[in-house]
Amino acid sequence: MNYYVIIPTYNEEKFIALTLQSLVEQTVLPTKIVVVNDNSTDRTPEIVSEFVSNYSFISLVNKTSNAIHLPGSKVIQAFHEGEKNIDDNYDIIVKVDADLIFPNHYFETIINHFKMDNQIGMVGGFCYIEKDGKWVLENLTDKDHIRGALKAYRKETFKQIGGLKPNMGWDTVDELLCKYYNWKVVTDESLHVKHLKPTGASYNQTARFKQGEAFYTLGYGFFITAIASLKLAIRKGKPLLFLDYIKGFWKAKSSKKPLLVTEEQAKFIRAYRWKKIKEKLF
After folding, report:
1. Based on the number of CB atoms within 10 Å of its own CB, is 56 exposed (0-12), middle (13-18) or buried (19 or more)?
2. What does the alpha-carbon distance between residue 161 and residue 252 come to, in Å, rounded to a whole number?
């Protein structure tokens, strides 16, 4: 099985070389790596260009966009730019961030999962961040969720869910739609990936409102949003974020922001979420 990797990047001169080095040292190499330089103002494109000149399967695409970092939309628009520069001859498509170090057997293991079960639609490992000189699990989500930083999709699954949506919540709706279409989502706890820049380090208040908006556009409804908001705020160690998330939800609801899913899919998502909540409670 061959895999293509798309890496959206913006001002990642500190980390991009480490990410690319870990990819070119994989026991099973990617067939293609497309790095999308999204208007960086630092040395990111020069560093990537050095890799391009040494590895024929790496290419650099330059994109212009505004510099405001809103989670979801900017990164996925860059990913879409990368998609324009690949063909259809892949079995697995991967979206990764430009601040990760993969263990060298990472993608060999990912491929083995896909080969073992034709119903597996997505696979991923776990992000670890450095704290007090130790690498610890970046515990922002449940262990059955694949972090947005390292998503690998079977081609058929990727096409059936309609690719990635340029909105915050893209890395939740993809998994919910996987389940809607009866694909399995697999996480492998043996795969420890170093995440060099903690998630959300550069988010401002607008971005925080966006989280509540994302819960709305996923079709969660108010009660599931309240539970999800409280859980996320506590996990981030900032309980007051709960209020920002709820404000974002009501803002999206009152402006009738379009959902990322159909009514039927939203109904499925709510039922699935309630089922998961009940499983944890009882």
Report:
1. exposed
2. 23
